[in-house]
């Protein structure tokens, strides 16, 4: 089970955007659009196993880049300067608890029926 899932509200704690937001006295928060799991790759470019040091997330409105896209053939693609979100390493974001509205670490609880759930470390409430 992942600590951060798609659709979660997260706060960026490190990086260029977080430093700019702190300078302005704001918190940089956004929802997770996509999780990009990291894998170890062998010499033949095959996935061997998961590598959690390479996990990344794409957060709405964070780490914006400009991609210069040119026209390719007859395909109708958007051309010109496209502004989009780039990925951020998963260690640079913290989950925002829906009940206490604070950035928090995530705990896991296993219940007697065998189910597993995420919990907030601050207020000890279930996240999902």
* Structural category: mainly beta
- Integer average pLDDT: 91
- How would you sum up the major sheet? 6 strands, antiparallel
Basic shape: globular
Count of alpha/pi helices = 1
Estimate what percentage of residues fall within beta strands.
Answer: 35-45%
Q: Give the beta-strand count.
A: 12
Q: Percent helix among the residues?
A: under 10%
Low-confidence stretches: none
Spatial gap, N to C terminus: 12 Å
Overview of the molecule:
By secondary structure, the protein is mainly beta. The chain contains one helix and twelve strands, in the order E-H-E-E-E-E-E-E-E-E-E-E-E. It has one helix at residues 16-23; strands at residues 9-12, 29-36, 39-41, 47-50, 56-59, 64-69, 80-85, 88-89, 93-96, 103-104, 106-110, 116-120. The strands form four sheets. The protein has a six-stranded antiparallel β-sheet with strand order 8-5-2-1-9-10, with no helix packed on it. It is globular. The mean pLDDT is 91.
């Amino acid at each position: 089970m992942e600590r951060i899932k798609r659709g979660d509200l997260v706060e960026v704690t490190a990086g260029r955007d977080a430093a700019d937001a702190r300078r302005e006295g704001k918190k940089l928060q956004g929802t997770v659009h996509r999780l990009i799991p990291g894998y170890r790759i062998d010499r033949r470019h095959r996935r061997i196993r998961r590598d959690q040091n390479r996990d990344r997330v794409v957060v709405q409105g964070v780490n914006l880049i400009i991609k210069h896209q040119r026209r390719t053939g007859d395909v109708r693609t958007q051309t010109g300067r496209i502004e989009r979100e780039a990925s951020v390493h998963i260690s640079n974001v913290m989950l925002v608890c829906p009940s206490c509205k604070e950035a928090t670490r995530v705990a896991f609880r296993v219940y007697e029926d065998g189910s597993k759930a995420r919990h907030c470390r601050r207020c000890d409430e279930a996240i999902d």
